[in-house]
Structures
1.
Amino acid sequence: QVQLVESGGGVAQAGESLRLSCAASGSGFTINNMGWYRQAPGKQRELVAAITRGGTTNYADSLKGRFTISRDNAKNTVSLQMNSLKPGDTAVYYCNAELISDYATVLYWGQGTQVTVSS
């Protein structure tokens, strides 16, 4: 059974940094695209950043320069380094991963991790 498990959320002061990690467990698959999304209270879930298996990245325009996505294909992990945090970054952060097996391509989501930034 495949699971995505996130870690690294918490509380930070404005201007501080946090690093989120997400690990995919299970076997029998290859991970294609991976990404991070976030959802603030009362708002829709939005893309934060995405990364292909080859390392090509895509960021929300408003986050370029502050957030960095990376992945380790050997460990099936994706990380999000968040610098210069702002109160507006407060949200639940979700990782996702596109898993390809012999039978299907399925998009999995993590359970979410809370990030709270205080001013």
Note: The first strand starts at residue 3 and ends at 7.
2.
Amino acid sequence: QVQLVESGGGLVQTGGSLRLSCAASRSILSINTLGWYRQAPGKQREWVADIISGSIDRYVDSVKGRFTISTDNVKNTMYLQMNSLKPEDTAVYSCYAELRVGEAWAWGQGTQVTVSS
């Protein structure tokens, strides 16, 4: 199993940037998929991005070109660099890990991102 801890959320103005971190309790080299979801107040949880086998990254259309997902295998940490933030990016962002395809996911506790207009 793996434990995940997010950090890096906060309050930023429209157009600003934040970098979220998701620190894992073990090596991430063998983790199949790492990713991010977000949930805004009153809305369903939305998948944001993931990285598969440390190299294939995918994004929801609304963040393409603005967000970048990456990993640091030495620090066992995944990052979500968020640029050109918009008020509609306001949400609680949670990271997850799928150790192997089809297995139950591990989740972090979530970190709040608020973008003011």
Note: The mean pLDDT is 96.
